[in-house]
Amino acid sequence: MTNTLKANEYYKKGQFYKAIEMHEKTLKANPDDALAYQGLAQCFLQIKRFDQAYYAGKKALELDQELKIPLIVLGAVYLKKNQLNDAEMIVEKALSLDPDLEEAYFLLGTLYLMRGQIQGSISAFRKAVELNPQYWKAHYNLGLVYNKQASYAEALNEFSLAFKISPSIKTGPVMLAEHLYVHSIWYIIGMAALGFIAIEINSIFALPLVIVPAALFFIVGYVFLQAKNYINSVGSVLIGILIIALYLLYLYGIPLIAP
User: Would you state the torsion angle of the CA atoms of residues 105, 111, 115, 120, taken in this order, to the nearest 10 degrees?
Assistant: First the structure.
C-alpha cells in the first residue's frame, strides 16, 4: 500500500496526524505531488491549522488547477478568517468546475448565513442535501437556520436527520441540546407557569410541575457542558435554578401572585 493510500485510510478514521505523516513522506519522494498537498490541506483544516491548510491548498492548485478539494479547503479557511468576498470567489470557481459539488453549496450556505442572507442560506444548504442526503453537516446547519427563523418543526427534522446520519459523541450532545431547545423550551416554560398557578391553588400537581421543567433545564445544561458550549450551559442551569428559587420563595411564605 502506497503512502497516499495509507494517508487516505488514516484520514477516514480521523487519524489526521498519521495521515499528515504519510503525505509528508510522499512529498519527500516527490515534491510535486499535487494529491499529497491536497491531502495535507484537508488534514490541516481538520486540526484547525488554517495557515498550513491554506498553504497546502494553494500549492496543490499550483500543481493541478483542475483539483476541486483544495478549493473547498481554501473556501473554508477564508470563512474561518471572515474573508467573505474571497470565499465567494473560491466557491464560484469550485462550482464552475463542478456544478454538483455539495461541499461548495455547503460553503455557500455558510457564507450566506454569515452575511445574514437567510433565504439564500436555506437554498444553498437544501441543494447540498439534495446532492448528498447523507451530508449531516448540511442538515445540521440547515437546522440552525430554521431555528433562527423560529421554524422549530423544520429545525427539529433537520437535527434529527443529522443525528441519524452521524450519531457521534462529538456531534450528538450538541444536537440533543438543540432538540431540547427548539422543540421543548416553550413547553417547559409553560409547564413551569402551570406549576406556579397550581401552587397558588394548592393543587397536588404543584411540585412535579415545578421540578420537572427545572430538571429538564439542568439536563440541557449538562448536555451543553459536555459539548463545551459553556454559554448555553450556564444559561440553562440558571433558568433551572430560577424555577427552583421561585418555588422556595413560595415555600417560605412569599406569594407568587398578589392576593
Answer: 0
